[in-house]
Structure prediction request, 542 residues.
Amino acid sequence: MGKSYDYVIVGGGSAGCVLANRLSEDGVARVLLIEAGGRDLHPFIHIPLGMGKMHERDMFNWGYATDREPNLNGRRIEAMRGKVLGGSSSINVMAYTRGHRGDYDRWAQKGALGWSYADVLAYFKRCETWEGGENAWRGGSGPVGTEFAKTRDPIYDAWIEAANAAGLPVTDDYNGRQQEGFGRGQYTIRNGYRSSASNAYLRPARGRRNLTVATRAEASRVLMQGTRATGIEYRNGQGQTVAARADREVILCAGAFNTPPLLMRSGIGPASHLADMGIKTAIDLPVGKNLQDHLAVMISFARRDGSTFRQEMRFDRMAVSMLRAYFFGSGPGTVVPGGLHAFIKTRPELAVPDIEFMFRGAPADTHLWFPLVRPAYRDGYGIRPTLLHPDSRGQILLRSTNPSDPPRIVYNFFSAPDDLPRLREGFKRGRIVAYQQAMNAFRDSETSPGPQVKTDADIDAFIRQTAITAHHPCGTCAMGIGPQAVTDPQLRVRGAERLRVVDASVMPDLVSAHINACVLMIAEKAADMILGKPPLPADLAA
Prediction:
């Protein structure tokens, strides 16, 4: 064994950054954080509008793709995940959505004891500094800055008016008293800069002598003595194999795609699959099963009037805006071109919303332009219906025992009979809103799929050909108490000692939201569990 620590954390994403901060807070416990990516130094990470270039150039991304999906016309779907300090919180669109209170009550009812809404609300509040100030639902002094969208575009007011005309609810704060409805967007931005987990949690802790951060360090396996985790073996940036000892706990925060392969290579997983890979089984658990994600499809329109955003995309203006954003945290470069999210129920008897509408304020072919050099793009916008609670389940499998080989990602989208009809219904509802009179001043032609796509069969064919994920994978090390649970409600790997998982893989199922806020909350709550602290008091009033 190499150097010894109290805690070894694998994965410097959202959960890993939270734990690195909280577990080293006393200045005594020796903490090692291992991250496969590099440091988050690039300006595109910190300037909110820089996310477009990161996605376009595939920067700070593991570069994963699914196996061919038979119910999506055999397509391989890209599966972006952050590979940098801060993980996906350093490259995502910064949307801050917690989900419906019923999501967490459902978890508790199914065996994730201690994870009801009353149990987790205080941890959500501990995570954030909400620009509107602390109240019964929002935090006022946490590490992550959250704010309303700063987009100044009348199209978002028109969407709200259209929702009212279509008989859909509107909410003042979808992270507050009422989640259901159309609401002004909220983002993890603070003082004009991305409030990633790295910026919010890790950066303030980097000066602690008891915290070591190893970047470009890829974990290969958990070191085990029988069923007890003793450390981590990883390859460092120089290509050397290093063993780090954990005297208290090994904590895996590598995410829904990367935590399962790490466990499997360590002999923890489905015995039949491990045998196929030539790995001796130490603990037979359904690791990698229960994979879920939000599947979404876009309805796009050409825009009748010209948006302010397109004017700002003129090369000289944007160059100045990016400099202002980087050096001063001000100007158009600090504003995400999206100002709305909507969470709706397609049937009134549902306990939680089953469809989210995401809104795009610019067309897919947005680019810099300049007179006489490159013409401006045709302006456009879109509404993106998203299936929040699919019944289909996939799995993560090893491709080989080589840690450098990417995992196999098998979603099995639309393998459950109700998923496609429910997304189709979300598509129809989105179209109804998009064609309300309030949108007439903005709506030109429907560019995708186009007015010729009318029947259920037409819509289904369009969905199968174009649907992609919203990049919210979860569930592959689900917590609970039944035989399908990999982790218990304390996030300990069942049958193992001193081994815990803290990331999106422990979510039993999807919440009615983007998942980054949920992962931050999980890590905050896990920190108290690991340190043996009593949980924050249940918030029954809210």
Summary: The mean pLDDT is 96.
